[in-house]
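Chain A, query sequence.
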Amino acid sequence: MEKEKKPDYVVYNYETESYDAALKPYSTSVGAPKITIDDNTDWKNRVSTKVNHKIKTKYEELKAAYTEMMEEFEYNNLILNADFSFEPIVGQTYHLYINKKGNHFLSLIAPDQCNFNFVGSFLLNADQTWEKVSE
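Chain A, predicted structure.
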């Protein structure tokens, strides 16, 4: 026996053989309000712009910190490979020069007291790292 086809406006579930219009998550009557999808493109664009700005700012901060760290590493490496015949004291400022052979050497003599090729002045910190002193 063939099942009787219900009209389109009647919500009938053939599997459970019951009328289940009240159980649907959406309206099923002809007089129900129209289902519309909100346009959230503007919101997505605003949020996207804010997120991109935040990530770019964080990237620039990390990039600046990395550059600073690499500069500190290069100065420390340069000083530790320089010639000096004394044990540096923490908190003391030392001066880095280049001799005639092109080798770096560390000295206590200030740049205004000698005629060596001056590279920079450095301070030995408590954690045994060298910090460039601004001239």
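The mean pLDDT is 88. The beta strands are 12-13, 18-19, 93-98, 104-107, 117-124, 130-133.
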